[in-house]
């Protein structure tokens, strides 16, 4: 039916255009009425789609009012064309800023209540993407959402509480992305935690939670995301936030470091498998990016300070000294 509509629209344009008419615009339908279900509107961003829906509801009310006293008659095609392709409207459109790099893209960032995740989500939103914030901490998540709405508007952001170890929670968040914005183009697997202990002190519970959140969480989120991306058939991007600990060994880090190494190789495996679907998988390996993160919680800071023979207060300066610029790295 979409093919038939696009053909009909092209014929309408060819029939009604004049010598100075602007070039044909997007021939896809903006409003779709699905009997027994409702109305769907489509556009390059949620705000435009929402406004189209509001206009069409007003049009329905006009039609109902007309039918109540007589009958509704639409404009002749030529008059409708003259309004749609009005030269002054075209001049206004031509003066609008060029679309930003991620205009029309939909991005889900896990663990985006703070730290690296929130910084990535900010970058995506500032480049025009619609962003789904997700975190297992409702208070942090709501604060981040309020911040994003203030910065980018209500049509650019959605949020959902997400436990990346729970398949049902992941499915619910994916549904939120599809219902709020219509699909999913970018996934950032950022949710994580850190535990720093000696081999002797490491518990089975420590090991399980590290691998559940970091490895299984990345796998389950990716698995659910590619199901959507494959149905869309337009490719996609998966970005996994891993760690330098995936590559470099250090003391008191057996559980976290090995889980990060598993994340890294899982990313390689996914990249090899998903390339045929035009889905790219990439990795970032940060080191000591801790501002705004929950990474200081628990005994992680104490464990790392003990491993390096320094105090907790000295950790930021110690990490800064490992960089070429001798500066603390911010998200």
Low-confidence stretches: none
- C-alpha Rg (nearest Å): 25 Å
Characterize the largest beta sheet: strand count, sense, and whether it forms a barrel: 6 strands, parallel
How many distinct domains?
A: 2
Would you count the extended β strands for me?
8
Q: Structural class given helices, strands, pairing?
A: alpha/beta
Strand content: 5-15%
In CATH, the topology of the largest domain is named: Rossmann fold
Order of helices and strands: HEEHHHEHEHEHEHEHEHH
What CATH architecture of the largest domain would you give?
3-Layer(aba) Sandwich
Average per-residue pLDDT, rounded, comes to 92
Number of helices: 11
Q: How widely separated are the two ends?
A: 46 Å
CATH superfamily placement of the largest domain: NAD(P)-binding Rossmann-like Domain
Spatial strand order of the main sheet:
5-4-3-6-7-8
Tell me, what's the shape? elongated
CATH structural class of the largest domain: Alpha Beta
Helix percentage: 40-55%
Set down the secondary structure blueprint.
Blueprint: H1 2-16, E1 31-34, E2 38-41, H2 46-69, H3 77-84, H4 87-94, E3 106-109, H5 115-126, E4 130-135, H6 138-152, E5 157-161, H7 167-181, E6 186-189, H8 204-232, E7 236-241, H9 254-274, E8 279-284, H10 300-308, H11 315-320
Helix pairs in contact: 7-8, 8-9
